[in-house]
Amino acid sequence: MKKLIILGSTGSIGVSTLEVVAACKNRFRVLGLTGNSNLDLLERQIQRFHPEVVVVGNAVDAARLQLKYRRKLQVLYGPAGLITAATWPGADMLVSSLVGALGLEPTLAAIGKGYDIALANKEVLVMAGTIVMAKARQHKVRILPVDSEHSAIWQCLKNEPAKNVSRLILTASGGPFWRLSRQELAKVDVARTLAHPTWNMGRKVTIDSATLLNKGFEVIEAHHLFGIELSKIQIVIHPESIVHSMVEFTDGSVIAQLAIPDMKLPIQYALCHPDRSANELPKLDLPKIGKLTFSKPDFTRFPCLRYAYQAAETGSTMPAVMSAADEIAVQSFLDNKIGFSQISKVIAKVLKKHEVTAKPGLKDILSSTEWARREARKYIARIG
Ligand code: MG
Prior knowledge:
Layout: E1 2-7, H1 12-23, E2 28-34, H2 39-49, E3 53-56, H3 59-69, E4 74-77, H4 78-86, E5 93-96, H5 104-112, E6 116-119, H6 123-138, E7 143-145, H7 148-157, E8 165-172, H8 182-187, H9 190-194, H10 203-211, H11 213-226, E9 233-237, E10 243-249, E11 254-258, H12 264-272, H13 286-289, H14 303-314, H15 318-334, H16 340-353, H17 362-383
Parallel strand pairs: 1-2, 1-5, 2-3, 3-4, 5-6, 6-7, 8-9
Antiparallel strand pairs: 8-10, 10-11
Helix pairs in contact: 4-5, 5-6, 6-11, 6-15, 11-14, 14-16, 15-16, 15-17, 16-17
Bound molecules: magnesium ion.
């Protein structure tokens, strides 16, 4: 039995991961779970999966849960608790599905412990891809992608050396606003942004999908995961979300991975790899779908895409700064402090002001993200 620690178990990916675990009977045992504020759900997960450790957001909730479960369960809280849980003894794999910067240090700690990583938390590679991949190589740890696009590329790349690859083609649904003009984009509100047509995701990822910054993050993620240079990673808009990504090889052959969009599929592939087990997920019916469409991304209406490529080209602390500025901008949009089109403006402003550090270590990255959050807040206070 593979023993798992799931960071962010009450989030969208965490919930799907536990559904996969439940469906694959006797293959997995859950050692650790973490949740922030949805304690009802976390308790239902505790009672069903009997972990050894759980982490909650604060000391009060931790004390209450500890009293209730006594010696059956170790209850921890906060960032230090996340690191203890991520390195809990006896595990085989960490499912890293927190959102944002919070997941970086626990993921690095689990790599240090030699645990394989099923990675859903894309900011881990966006912020510190070079450090994370180097540490994974050092500890002989596999970083297995959970993101649907990267899972697709991983499957398409099987047994092919990097020298045979001419392009990675990441598909993007385009998000809910793909067809809107710049004027219309400026007027969209929170409720409309959260109603995503194809993928059911958490709020942060849903907003990032609407600005297309999520796709920019995925370009950076692919660059680190597969060691392919940025100029060979392209985006194509594919609103049906059936082709999850493609790889073009030097001879012109393109291999794609297709499936009905459901995160449980890439999660299962990462958890069960190299096995493929039968499942109850809906299967592809191409005649019913009829046609698949593709178009070019628009870097003008969706400037976040451009910023992501630029930040990635600059490298160093720039992608981490972009990710931190985005976290603040997205939260401010959700709090109705700024408009949708101002998310990209906040990011642009902070990126422009940032001076990168040569060869940054983890400390440099963390302090540059602190700086970026302060700058983003200052700017939002002025324009909001
Ligand atoms: Mg994705």
